[in-house]
Specification:
This protein is mainly α and 66 residues long. It contains three helices and no strands. It is rod-shaped and about 65 Å long.
């Protein structure tokens, strides 16, 4: 019985982790696109370093279109 409860809680926290990761990924892609940068490239980078990627994107200036 205890094993079933532990397995259910483990699965729940796994879902929370995946959901948070997808939120960070979508935020990163949205910020990158709003600054004129490649959403795909920054999204791939965010797959491995989501928090750091958002901070870097917030610090770099937008691409100037002339």
């Amino acid at each position: 019985m205890v094993g079933v409860i532990v397995a259910a809680l483990s699965f729940f926290w796994w879902l929370v982790f995946v959901f948070a990761w997808l939120i960070f990924l979508s935020i990163t892609i949205a910020i990158a696109r709003s600054k004129g940068r490649s959403g795909l490239l920054w999204g791939l980078l965010a797959c491995f370093l989501p928090g750091i990627t958002i901070i870097i994107l917030l610090l770099i200036p937008p691409v100037s279109r002339s």
